[in-house]
């Protein structure tokens, strides 16, 4: 197993061209470029300070307190107004 030479690169490019076609390749490369660009931008942005400062215990307690308590559903009361025979 040696290095990849120019013939192997040409073969791979030919297979990609056959699989995707000449019309889809520019769109595919453009979308991949946008994905890489947005990923790099996401890495450069600072994470929100409020999430980083809280310990894990406080986050769990906050998550539990923010969920509304579930109350058991009450069945509607029905009155039997029919006269007994």
Write out key terms for the chains shown.
85 residues, single chain, elongated, mainly alpha, 0% strand, 61% helix
Per-chain topology:
Elements: H1 6-20, H2 24-44, H3 49-53, H4 56-66
Give structural notes.
This protein has 85 residues and is mainly α. The protein has a domain at 21-64. It contains 4 helices and no strands. The longest helix is centred in the middle third of the chain and has 21 residues, at 24-44.
- Tally of extended strands? 0
Distance between the termini: 96 Å
Biggest β-sheet: count, sense, barrel?
A: none
How would you describe the shape? elongated
Beta-strand percentage? under 5%
What is the CA-atom radius of gyration, in angstroms? 31 Å
Helical amount: 55-70%
| Mean pLDDT over all positions | 76
Order of helices and strands: HHHH
Helix tally? 4
Q: Please identify the structural class as seen in this structure.
A: mainly alpha
């Amino acid at each position: 197993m040696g290095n990849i030479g120019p013939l192997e690169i040409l073969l791979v490019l030919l297979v990609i061209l056959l699989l995707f076609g000449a019309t889809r390749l520019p769109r595919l490369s453009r979308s991949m470029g946008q994905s890489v660009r947005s990923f790099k931008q996401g890495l450069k942005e600072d994470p929100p300070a409020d999430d980083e400062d809280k310990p894990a215990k406080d986050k769990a307690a906050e998550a539990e307190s923010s969920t509304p308590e579930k109350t058991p559903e009450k069945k509607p009361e029905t009155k039997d107004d029919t006269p007994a025979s």
